[in-house]
Amino acid sequence: MSTPTTSRGARTAAAKRTERRALADAHQHLDDVEKWFIKRGLPHFIEDYRATEDVFRRALPVFVVLVLFQMGLELTSKSVTWADRGIGAAIGLGAIFLIFLAANLVRQPHAWYRWPAKIGLPEIALLVVLGPTVGKISHASWAAVAADGVANVLVLGLVYVLVSYAMLPVLIWALRHAVQELGNLVNLASKALPMLALFGTFLFLNVDMWHIASSFEKRSQLWWTTFFFGMITLGFLMVRLPGEIKELSGEYTREAVAAAAGDTPMSRHLDELDGELPQLRTDRRQQVNMLFVLGFTQVIQILLLAVVVFLYFVSLGKLAVNDGQIADWLRTPECPHGVDLNQVEHTPEAVAKACGFSTEEQGRAWLNIIDPGKLFGFPARIPL
Length: 384
Description:
Blueprint: H1 2-39, H2 51-75, H3 82-107, H4 121-137, H5 142-164, H6 167-180, H7 182-204, H8 207-214, H9 219-247, H10 254-260, H11 284-320, H12 323-329, H13 348-355, H14 360-370, E1 374-375, E2 378-379
C-alpha cells in the first residue's frame, strides 16, 4: 500500500525539481537576452527598464567614487586643518555607510549586508548633498560648497545619460563594428577618393583657400571652422536617421525574424514563433535609443573616412607643395635657395637675417611656413 504513495511523492518531488530547473533556465535565458540588448546599446528595449532601479544601481560605484574624490579635494585644501579633515572624513564615510545600511534595512532586510539590489532617488539625493555638506563642516566657503553642489548635479546627469543609454557598450560595439567594416570603408574610400581628387585638389591647391587659412590669427579659429562643418554634417545625419527608424516598423515575416535572430540568444526559441507575428511598435524612448545607436555607428564610419581623406590631403600637400610655393601663395618673400634654415634659430630676427629680409615681419611670416606650431602636441609640419 505504501508503494503508490511513495511513487506519487517521488513524482511530485521530481516535478517540482523540473519546474525549478525550468524556471532557473528561463531566468538565465532572460538575463542573457537583456545582456545582449545592453551590449548593443539598446537597454530601453528591455521590458520594464527603469532608470531608478537599473541605471542608478549600475552607476552607483562610479558615483560613490566621485563623491569620495570630491571629499578628498575638500579635505586636502590648505585652509582646512588636520582636525577638520579627520572630522570631515569620518562624517563623509560614516554617512555613506549609514545611507545604504538604512536603505538596505528597509528594502532588503533579510540581506541587509549585501550590495543594494535597488537604488532610489532618496539615496542619490543624499549623495548629491553629501560632498557639499562635508565641505561646509570642514569650514569651506559658501562659494566652494555651491560649486560642489552644482558639480554633483552635473555629474549625476552625465552618469545618468551615459548609463541609461549604455554609451560605453555602444562605444565598444561601434568600435568593434567599425573594425569589421574596414573592408567596406576601403570600398567607400575607393569610390569617394576619385571625386575628391578631382574637386578637392583644385580646392586644396588654391590661392584663396591658403589666404583664408593664413588670415586666422589664432589656432582656435581653425578649430571653430572645423567644428562648424562637423555640426553641419551631424545635422544632415540627424535629419536622415528618423526616416531609417520609421522603416524598421515595417511588415515582418517569420522568415525575416528567424534570419535576424540567428546569432542571438533568442535563436533557441524560434520554433515557438506563431505564423502571424505582432508588428514592431516602439515608444519614444526606444526610438531615441535606436536613433542614438544608428547615429553613433554612422559617426564612427564618417570619422574613419575623414581620417582617410585627411591622410590623402596631407600626402598630397607633402608631395606637391613646397615652402617656396606656400610663400608665393601667402605673398611672402621667398628665402633664397641654399639657406639651410634648420641650422638657424627659429626666431623672426634670425630667420630675417639668414634670408636677407628687410623686416622682422617678413621673417615672422616665413617662420610660420617652416614652423607652424604644434597639433595635438606634435609638430604640425611633417619632418620629412
